[in-house]
Here is the input.
Amino acid sequence: MKKIDRIIIVGFGSIAQALLPLLSENYDSEIIIFDKEIDATRKNIASEYSAILINNLITPNNFHSILSPLLNNNSFLLNLAVSVSSLALINLTQRFNTLYLDTCIEPWDYANHNNNHLKSNHSLRENLKQYAQTQTSTTTAIVGHGANPGFISILLKKAMLEMAQKNGIPDQPKTQSEWAKLSEHLELQVIQISERDTQISSKKRAPKSFICTWSVDGLITECLQPAELGWGSHEVDVPQNAKNNEYSLELIEQGRNVIVKSWSPNYLEFNAYLLTHNESLSIAEYLTLDTPSTPKYRPTVYYAYHPCDQTVDSMHLLCSGNEDQIESKEVMKDDIVSGIDELGIFLISKKYKSLWLGSNLSIGKARKMAKHNSATSLQVTSSIVAGMKWAEQNSESGVLESENLDWEYIYDFVEPYWQPIIIQETDWRPSCSDTLQFHSFRVYPKN
Here is the structure.
């Protein structure tokens, strides 16, 4: 087991700021943070936890010279920035036997210079997969391990076992193929990552301001990337102009323009945006039987997200397909006065009742658990620390995603932070007139 003496954080946005209280509870390590912007809030929070905050934008030209002197066998590098390449930082940490974790696969630049679209998550993930195949027994680097992507893949396994138990199916899968066979046995056709955020700010949103409860730049990128989903083996009708990428489907529409139906125990049925997310792809591939290109079985998997109402209002600023109308950006945190972030995995079976398993974490509970956190950030930061702890104990596991971690270990660490965790069966299914049909996935552009 590695002993971590130094934690290096790239990016000091709302998630990294919310992470410091949890790091202080679990580590007695030097913390060094790099960010392109330093304001009074960042300075105060860093000072509160004795972290060294350095004003420096990490770029392709300087990342090696800036980070290399800090990396060694007892360091842990956290990439929590937008547009700081996961692949580049992982390759660097491998050279110094330094542990690594990020919450999303990031490129240096999201622009796709071959066309007018931003890079897809499928292309980013495939590039990293190719690299990971050459790093099978090297220093552990965990990719895409926040709340979602990340802990949602842990909840997936718990939810599948809950559904199996409720329907009299005795199964204890261990390997990837065994989990895929259980998914087939449960006749799962659709798996949603279902999220309804109802947190409310006391501030009135300015007309040209984009606000949200986590990373503004991260959310804007997801809104402007092409909508993507894991593509099930039962699907027949491919949406017009969609690109089939073996185990996933890339739509021509941006995520902000694709609406789906979802359901949660507290909010019940709601409309949601189909935003591209790494877990939609990794879960779909993980639950594939046979090869990705010719699957015997694979469920359809996608992220159905309804952010808080003030964020939905902000998203109208993207109506031209870019950020040109945005004059300011702000993350809701201390100004949140009420609400919950209802986030879970939602299993829709052809044979059994649907099952939702996830968190109904409120802003009040989150603040009691950890300073500088909202319900949204605590779901992410608790999963980050759990991934770090697992990596310390499994320090030569190579480059891997959340589906390949010890799900019970991660769940036991995170569960107190996500409480209350709700498990609920329902007869709800999208009707034939809705955007998601029982046997086929359908989308329509948002007006």
About this structure: The chain is about 30% helix and 25% strand. The CA atoms of residues 187 and 351 lie 6 Å apart.
